[in-house]
Amino acid sequence: MKHIIFRSRSDSSDEEYLVELQIDHSTVKLTCSCPAGSHGQLCKHRFAFAQGLDDYLLHEEERASLQEVKDIIGHSSIFETIDQINKETAAIEQAKKRLKNLRNAAGRVMDKGFALTKT
Ligand SMILES: [Zn+2]
User: Fold this and answer.
1) Residues 82 and 72 placed together within one structural domain of the fold
2) How many whole angstroms from 26 Cα to the centroid of ligand 1?
3) How far apart are CA 103 and CA 33, in angstroms?
4) Does residue 119 belong to any structural domain of this protein?
5) Which end of the chain offers a freer environment for a tag, N or C, measured as fewer CB atoms within 10 Å?
6) 69 Rama class: left (phi>0) / alpha (psi -120 to 50) / beta
7) In this structure, are 90 and 53 located in the same domain?
8) What distance in Å separates the CA atoms of residue 30 and residue 7, rounded to the nearest whole number?
9) Both 63 and 81 in a single domain?
10) In this structure, are 108 and 63 located in the same domain?
């Protein structure tokens, strides 16, 4: 049984949350005590720590465990899902940029004037 704990900060209050990675036999659990995490959602704390990111690291002495968690997750069955989430998030960002460009272009064309018939 392996047990790694990170204390994490809240963006909106002084509260600390506990992000815990537990390995029991060959099963890994990564839980967070924040409201979202407690309700089974992939909160930002779990998502960050699962990737070894220090975005929500509160206590420097816990930094040494980041790489270990990243390695454990990297070899686990959840890795593909995390990778896919990152890819889909990037795709959404690209789509948002294209949408913004289209909206800006449509606005400019409406000001400038456009053909009465389809081309
Ligand atoms: Zn959380």
Assistant:
1) no
2) 23
3) 41
4) no
5) C
6) alpha
7) no
8) 13
9) no
10) no
Same domain, 96 and 67: no
CA of 55 to the centre of ligand 1 (A): 12
Distance between CA atoms of residues 70 and 73, nearest Å: 5
φ, ψ of residue 24 to 5 degrees: the values are -125, 115
Instruction: Take residue 7 and report the two structure tokens written for it.
Output: 């204390």
Predicted confidence at residue 56, as pLDDT, reads 93
Q: Which domain holds residue 85?
A: 77-112
Measured in Å, residue 114 CA sits from the centre of ligand 1 at 50
* pTM given for the model: 0.85
Owner of token pair 């900060």: 9
- Euclidean distance between CA atoms 73 and 61, whole angstroms: 21
Mark whether 54 and 103 lie in a shared domain.
no
